[in-house]
Amino acid sequence: MKIQQIRRDKEEYIDMLLMADPQKDMIETYLDQSEVFVLVNGGDVCGICAIEPMKNRKCELRNIVIREEDRGKGYARYMIRYLCEYYGNQCDTMYAGMCNCRKTIEFFEKCGFTNSHIAANFYLEHYREPVWQDGVRMTDKVYMKKQLDSEISVKKVVDLALEAGRILLKNGAEIFRVDETIVRICNRFHVKYVDTFILSHAIFVSAENGMEEAYTKVKQVPLSSSHLGIVAEVNELSREIVEGLVSIEEAEERLRRIDRIPDKKGYFQVFAAGLGSGSFGYLLGASALESLIAFLIGCLLYVWVLTAKKHGMSKMIVNIVGGVIITALALLACHLPIPGHVKLDGMIIGSIMPLVPGLAFVNAIRDIADSDFLSGTVRMIDALLVFVYIAVGVGITLSIYNNMGGRLML
What we know:
By secondary structure, this protein is of the alpha+beta class. The protein has 15 helices and twelve strands.
């Protein structure tokens, strides 16, 4: 569902406009000076409206029609909200003239319009045939108005788009996805001139609306762990914003709720880490017994990871100590009286999987492939350092074990 402006052959839509204004020559008096918009859904024109720009930053909604079979679906309110946003950069006030019908007046009141003035006997003086509404002959034309000066601003739109980008980048989204989301949200709210510069840990946005209103903002986004559930939620919200189903205020509230989505329960993460360790170990050649031990080691390892995160420990400490825990537990398993032979490498290879930054590594490659070399390089270095930290933890533990083992053998 989208709204398009009709720039040519406006007369082709007169038949549809006649559904709201029954006199053709009345429509012709304002059609040429009006800007016409149609609501298209699935290739069909479901609604149409004509709005006439006026002097002193004012405009008038001259006609709005929704197809009879599509009424009651919120399409009219959607079109009015779109028009208020569209003309908010050009006009201070929007007027709408209508029959003195309570049902119509209540609808416009729900859209934020208030009473302006009345044109007495308008339908008696300008229409050759009587105009009826709900069985009552109309005589006066009621004008309502809505202030548009605070309807939308570049700052408000950029702040919304930047917050969506921050949440995406913080939770592991690719650079191109962040950039696309920011630009599309800005374009949806008629901020057409947008420049973005996105790094792995910062977002720079500069935008203007063509009316000499410009806004620039920088947001630092520290590197952190990924949460693809939050990324999926922001993606879904951005689609709804682009389709015009969500206002700025609703989008801001949704983003606040999305940003507060908690991680999975600790016991679930511990079990998932164990399951991943055992499964990857088996896929990489470990025996069933080694995979079972890797499952147990993975569970114990992630208890440490969650504890370290809770206390805000650095990534270096988390991964080095994690490597130590994995290797120490694997060595312990080799010396336990377990029926069957187990190999150290099979248990260690599976157990380190919860520490491996696979998503960060893949995103780094994708960023480099998309020519985002700076961001890709930073993410790649961050991922490679995690590999180094794990290797240091494993290497230190094996070195100590071999030295102790050598002394014991003497």
